[in-house]
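User: I'm curious whether this sequence folds into something compact or stays loose and floppy. Could you predict its structure so I can see for myself?
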Amino acid sequence: MNKAQVSTNQRGSVLVIVMVLVLILTILGYGIIKSAFGSRMQTVRLKQEAVATVSAEAAYEKAVFWMSQQPDMLYALSQGVSGTTGGLSFPNSNSKYSIQFSKFIGSMPVYHITSKGLCGQSQRVIDAYLIQNISGWESPHRVPSGASGSVPWPFTSSEIIDIPIHVNSHGAPDDSVRDLYVKGSGPTFKRRVGMGEGRHSSGGSDKYSDLMDNFKGGVYFNQPDNKISQVSVVKQKVVRFRDSTAPAFQFTPQTKAPLANPNAAVQLEFFVDSGVGKVRITNNCGVRGYQDTRTSGARTYDYKIDNPDKLDSYARYDIYSYHVRPTSELPVTYNLTDTYVQQDYGGYKSAPGGQIFVDGNVIIGGDNSLHDNNQLIKGQVTIVATGNIWVADSIMVDGARDGAKPASDNTNVLGLMAQGVIKVVDPGMPKYSYIDGGNPLNDSNFRYVPVGQPDGSYRKLPSSMIVEAAITVGGGGWGAEHVGARRMTSPTTYGYHKLVLRGAITEVIRGIVGTDPSKLSFPDSSNGYLKYYYFDDRLLEGLLPGNIWMKGKYLPLPGGWNDYRASLDGS
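Assistant: Here's the prediction. I'll summarize afterward.
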């Protein structure tokens, strides 16, 4: 081989090597470029997915806010009110939501929100199942001090407060006066406390620094108010309840009784006979109303909302004195299950539960002939009245108990809702000398109906009054009437006694339970009740029929939240 051939072969080998190297570098460069492009595209996709997630969450929050504004969610869905679907648009994304009824858990409606967020090629979906938050004790914790204006009402160290509390804000949230008032060291609040106001005043002072140790269940400030203060919400709840109640248990009482300040009412008595829950109903009763209007040394301190659209305007109302029934109107006894109905929505039915509706007033109680001095509830029932509900006996539920409270597997429950007030009466207030014979005002067409327990020429309630019920008061407060001079043990014995509530309370204004000597000048200003309030945790399980809850807050069910990536074609 000559030198020319060797040189040519060497140059050819170098060219091959160079070409191989160029190919390798090209491949490496392409790989680097592709990898960089892939990383960039992955970054873009991750960014789009994050934006889509935020968009979906924003639509979900809008849906929940819309739900919080509705007087009644079942009504809103059944009427197709605008807002059950909607969405949001952003510069680089958009979202949409829909709200539907899902099912009942017991008597509790469950709502389904589907929310979708879209950004570029990314779509995120939120599926959430929500229930209405159930209240413990919702109250402004102030009582009327006259036709206008109110005063704070104290908790005392002698009381037991084992119930979640929410206190609606009075005045500006950052004013200098705290809305939860205690006397002395105050009680221990064993459950969560929510406040509509802030902890600090506008000047920066800590209004609750000396009370923080009392909040064993935690305290949360700047919380939204309860919807009980919205008249439209209460009315819509009442109307829907009425329309879903069996016609046989819708009552419109009338009375022609020749009484002063007559109020038409239905009397209800609950008892158990041979293991069966019963209700005895007397229609067309007449309540003798009483109102002490003396401005000096007034013996009553009983107010309701005067103008539903103006919550700081109050009026005295005719409290319960006694009642009569027409001699022609005999009581009728039913099995409590006769009152049962099922809410029906979209082909789904709630658990059966009792409903009684009264377009007027209700008296719960009697003498002691049927129920051994107590009303005894065996079954599940809710009573709604457009007027007042007067409680004239202790009310307890039948069945298993865990200490004093109903056991967790006890299915007996009572709900009370009134557009007026719900109050424990003072059966010993009137002078009965002219009606004990059964001929009030010498009119043989009516018969006096005793309630409470006999005590000489008077009648009384037990010194420890027990009410086991979920209570919703749309026109005033929960409490006791005639606290300034009520008799509970004998005509000459006064003093504080226990009002034991096991259940829940929602009230538009604070009702008086016991009097405060530092604020009032009643003849017997130490008289009244101390509060012993316990939350009935069974209410969280959808046990109570009628859907009378007023909270404007909705919470996901445990395990009721799911968010995931979805393809744009829906697969």
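Summary: The chain has two domains: 3-133+555-566, 226-290+313-423+450-551. DSSP finds three helices and 42 strands in the chain.
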